């Protein structure tokens, strides 16, 4: 079999980019919000169909619409109970599935005012689609559900053409209003989570993305976190002025974001400190950070600590381990990347005992590490992929485990991408 040509790779990349764009949720549509909203809507719609069916039959033997409603309620309960395993892209299947269930209920109602009343459920689906997703994606969902609505109402007697047109127009109007309000809310959310200087997520925005990524992290899937600290940033501010320091921060953010993989998160944690989250093994993530170090302006350097994340991790434990690795890397001479090992906890304790005067208010630096960030009493969950491997220094100056890993192509990300708004 011949290797794929550059044209094939380009088309595949374009399709992948298109799929990611269509799957991207609004900033206000967090995973928690989507799970709760979807499950509650399915429960409410299912309960409506079931109760309406019983009322129409005088609480006699339940008919098919009743069981459709019960199935919708069960679906909502399953989504809620399995919320830990829920993914945002699941909604692209749940939306048409719910529309199909509503169409089946309309058809089984037998026509007339009962079917028209049940068709109002599509207004809820249209509102959710425009609330959760961009205009294009939401429009696709509404077109599919509107087609199901028209087919369902057209298949039963006693429904006038005017009733169908009213329901179709209602879907568009309600969806448009909710979509506009959602985007106004999203603008406010983004404004509060974006660092004005670098256009990257600020500490609040980065933490939100870290929490989302950890909530959706599956066992066995690679995920690594890195703390990246610009070296001698205070000297840049003192000797060249704060304008030069600001320009260095902007240049670093622009250069790094251009070469990161599309699924990575990069945010400014505060001061001269950045945080990166990537779906890579720790050693591969360290190689990616090495590429970021090389992308800095001439004469500038940075130091980084990297750690892998497990399903039992939280943001605090991951940040603590990455900060411990960063501490050891700075003590070794800066301008390098280090992957966390259990020995880093001991090294940090020894460094603090030998140089207690070096502790200061800022994080991630041996001369400026806060007690909260540098406290090593908890080393996080075991990381078997690192514990059994000796630490070694690579030619590029990075310190990582000797476990072999495949090459990392940091240029796989599109250089023309916009700054991040979500971790996909």
UniProtKB/TrEMBL annotation:
Keyword Cell inner membrane listed: no
Low complexity bias locations: 361-379, 391-405
Annotated stretches, region: Disordered: 339-424
Ranges annotated as spanning the membrane: 33-54, 66-82, 89-108
Record-linked InterPro entries: Diguanylate_Cyclase, GGDEF_dom, Nucleotide_cyclase, Rev_trsase/Diguanyl_cyclase
MF terms (GO), sorted A to Z: diguanylate cyclase activity
Keyword Zinc: no
Protein's UniProt name: Diguanylate cyclase (GGDEF)-like protein
Classification lineage: Bacteria, Bacillati, Actinomycetota, Actinomycetes, Kineosporiales
